[in-house]
Design goal:
The chain is α+β, with helices and mostly antiparallel strands and 259 residues long. Helix content is 25%, strand content 24%. Strands 1, 2, 4 and 5 form a four-stranded antiparallel beta sheet that branches. It has a three-stranded antiparallel beta sheet with strand order 3-12-11, with no helix packed on it. Helix 1 runs antiparallel to helix 2 and helix 3 runs antiparallel to helix 4. The longest helix is centred in the N-terminal third of the chain and has 22 residues.
Length: 259
């Protein structure tokens, strides 16, 4: 179980702020015509400038410093020479390591002018994350978050990916607890002050089933329909929670505000 306190808690908080800074830098590069390799380069350089290391790079042979998941890619997309096109949606998943701790966060962005169906998918996904975050406090069972996420997703006509889940994060990139995003799961554990973990629902426009490309990483929807994801690192406090990867005063304005 990933737990922090004292100086470790403060270090984790600072590392998560750095992660948010890097995500915001990546966000500012998004526009039609930009390749995901260019986003990867911006992320790598921003991470190194902060005397940190990009956690994904060489993690089980992952070849890049960031995951870029476009349209039907659910997660773990590998940056390449594909140019983003007007109307795409792209998820940028940032993880970095500094002073013994990992930060991990992601967000789905609009590329140019996006259709209403994609806007609804992305907004619903962000709302699913928020509904789960709102539940976090001591005594809550980790398994209960999935019910709130799936209820909201289904009410909007979407499905919840089951293969991938949230996780403990801190001194280890991935650790207990497992945090499934669907209802009636069997996750173990009860939240206690000091616990640090991610919530990162992946919501699909069609079936929740996924498949993995031959590269061993890229997870896509089986029906080719779009998928969106948002992720935050959350700390359980004595009386509730703190979102360690929350927006900064310098963060770009949320695209969802215009919906």
């Amino acid at each position: 179980m990933s737990t922090v306190s004292g100086t470790d808690e403060e270090t984790m908080r600072k590392v998560c702020i750095l992660g948010r800074e890097v995500l915001d830098i990546a966000a500012r590069t998004i526009r039609p015509g930009v390749t995901t390799d260019e986003i990867d380069r911006a992320v790598h350089e921003a991470t190194i400038e902060r005397n940190a290391y990009p956690s994904p790079l060489n993690y089980y042979n992952f070849p890049k410093s960031v995951c870029t998941s476009v349209n039907e890619v659910i997660c773990h997309g590998i940056p390449d020479q594909r140019k983003l096109q007007d109307g795409d949606i792209v998820n940028i998943d940032i993880s970095l390591y500094k002073d013994g701790f990992h930060a991990d966060l992601n967000k789905t962005y609009f590329v140019g002018s996006v259709d209403d169906a994609s806007k609804k998918l992305v907004k619903t996904t962000r709302d699913c994350l928020q509904k789960a975050i709102d539940m976090v406090k001591p005594g809550v069972k980790y398994r209960d978050l999935g019910a709130a996420i799936e209820k909201h997703a289904k009410a909007n006509g979407f499905s919840v990916v089951r293969t991938y889940c949230g996780h403990g994060v801190g001194k280890m990139f991935h650790s207990a607890p497992n945090v499934p995003h669907y209802a009636s799961n069997r996750a173990i554990g009860v939240m206690k002050p000091g616990h640090v973990f991610t919530i990162e629902p992946m919501i699909n426009a069609g079936s929740y089933d996924d498949q993995t490309w031959k590269d061993g990483w890229t997870a896509v929807t089986v029906d080719g329909k779009r998928s969106a994801q948002f992720e935050h690192v959350v700390l359980v406090t004595e009386d509730g929670h703190e979102v360690l990867t929350r927006r900064l005063p310098t963060s770009p304005e949320s695209q969802l505000n215009a919906i």
